[in-house]
Amino acid sequence: MIAPELLDLLVCPETKASLSLADDATLDKINAAIKAGTVKDREGEVVEDAIDGALVREDQVYCYLIRDDIPVMLMDKAISFDAFKLSQA
Q1: pLDDT category of residue 4 using cuts at 50, 70 and 90
Q2: CA 2 to chain centroid
Q3: What does the mean pLDDT of the chain come to?
Q4: Inter-CA distances, 62 with 56, 58, Å
Q5: Which of 14, 36, 59, 88 is deepest in the core (most CB within 10 A)?
Q6: Bridge-partner residues for 14, per DSSP?
Q7: Strand, helix or coil at 68?
């Protein structure tokens, strides 16, 4: 997973807001939605592959997916976090 030192340095590329790791329940919910084919990134492309983690923007509007322990910090690849907010601490 992401080292705490790196997490402290990462910010949203759009707003420069801080990011936090999504909890396990949220990841399960996101991966279930990905499996169901209902998750699209900001470009409108369907996210097809399960994720290892997610970095949630401070305002919980978007999250950035983590694949193979590497955060994908591209604004167009972020996903809306609206459907997953309830289980995020």
Answers
A1: confident
A2: 13
A3: 91
A4: 6, 9
A5: 88
A6: none
A7: coil
Task: Tell me which residue range forms the domain holding 41.
Answer: 4-87
Number of residues written out for the chain:
89
Nearest to 63 by CA among 23, 5, 12, 15: 12
Count the domains in the chain: 1
pTM here?
0.90
Which stretches of 1-89 are DSSP H helices?
Answer: 4-9, 24-36
CB 80 within 8 A of CB 72: no
Q: How are beta strands 79-80 and 53-57 bridged, if at all?
A: unpaired
**Per-residue confidence band for 70, with pLDDT thresholds at 50, 70 and 90:** very high
